[in-house]
Amino acid sequence: xxxxxxxxxxxxxxxxxxxxxxxxxxxxxxxxxxxxxxxxxxxxxxxxxxxxxxxxxxxxxxxxxxxxxxxxxxxxxxxxxxxxxxxxxxxxxxxxxxxxxxxxxxx
Amino acid sequence: xxxxxxxxxxxxxxxxxxxxxxxxxxxxxxxxxxxxxxxxxxxxxxxxxxxxxxxxxxxxxxxxxxxxxxxxxxxxxxxxxxxxxxxxxxxxxxxxxxxxxxxxxxxxxxxxxxxxxxxxxxxxxxxxxxxxxxxxxxxxxxxxxxxxxxxxxxxxxxxxxxxxxxxxxxxxxxxxxxxxxxxxxxxxxxxxxxxxxxxxxxxxxxxxxxxxxxxxxxxxxxxxxxxxxxxxxxxxxxxxxxxxxxxxxxxxxxxxxxxxxxxxxxxxxxxxxxxxxxxxxxxxxxxxxxxxxxxxxxxxxxxxxxxxxxxxxxxxxxxxxxxxxxxxxxxxxxxxxxxxxxxxxxxxxxxxxxxxxxxxxxxxxxxxxxxxxxxxxxxxxxxxxxxxxxxxxxxxxxxxxxxxxxxxxxxxxxxxxxxxxx
Lengths: 107, 422
Description:
By secondary structure, chain A is α+β, with helices and mostly antiparallel strands.
């Protein structure tokens, strides 16, 4: 199990113990974290699991990948250097304590 | 009994043909509401199906949820570019017959041009702007509903669905409000082919679209030189660096895309919801006991209705899909209406269930870079409509079966006779 901390735009924190191997989107949906929709089920194809990786964690998660993830983020709201699609972040032991901040609203 | 008998007949009809004779592009199948039997058979026996001969030439049908997702998310191989035929099965919709108007627009483009133009219009449906629109939408919904007759027959399509979606478009474009039904007409004409009941010839279509072009050119001219740009869509297009130097036909193409995108789709979901609840009284009761279910009912309506039956792509390289080899140049049709009924992806897909766990997992908006730009606006319009319906009417009684539109693209209703109960 790996701890992932999801912080809503209003500051509310959801601390989730996620099983390794699933994505940060799936972990959020499983634990009913509000504000992560994941309409496409994890194909990087809807951009409704947009998150900001805490800068301290960015080196470990890596930035958004070339291809569909970057393309879809192009059309999301308020995209920053730390933006990722949570469905493309795999939960692993090296991410224990990962902090993901949520945008105002998924679009 | 009648309904059961006719269901059996059409199932036999769909099952009796040899597979290679099945052509799901025939618009009359949709008008008769029997396309579902054909798609059920294709999903079961030949989910990626080749039709060698149709009104629209040879084409592939992609009928299962995951295969559709694979095509939709692979825009490098499956192109939307107008030059290959664009995004609907009928190439003529893109080129308007032999002597037609070329109407380039961003849904029928590949990156990078697609990305630039899409980004120019997407701010109008960004969360901040949607929040600003909510009050206006609610006011208009209330006015339309308050003027409906209670206890008398009327047509829900014309009086509610068309009226509300047209008002919404007029608001987004800041279009002269009294002339708003012109928008409805131009939307219908854009997706029409001769013989479907809307236009008689491609020439007539061209004439009406030129009239539309002239009208919108005037609106552009009025707004392009304002030093304080207004916040409507036309002003956005006229002032955005990505779109302000568009050619007139490209401007018209994008305008029509936004009119069609915001019109037929929401219109038919507004009607579809009424019809679905009428057919499912237990769901109607559930909703009235717990109005909070509107949030999950709205995406379920959009799935159940699937107001656009398909999107088309053209392969620009050979590709494997579902065990078949699609060749470069082939026309590939993603039947969203079938993927949304795929029993291997969606639990009890033929049923209308307003409290599904993951109601937004449906294909109606498409996935990937061409995903519907107005999806949250559409959901907001439907949510407000249902919130206000529940405040006013105890029941919307459907008096007769609706007539359906003769189209393999717009999956919708020509009318729905109803009577309201106070």
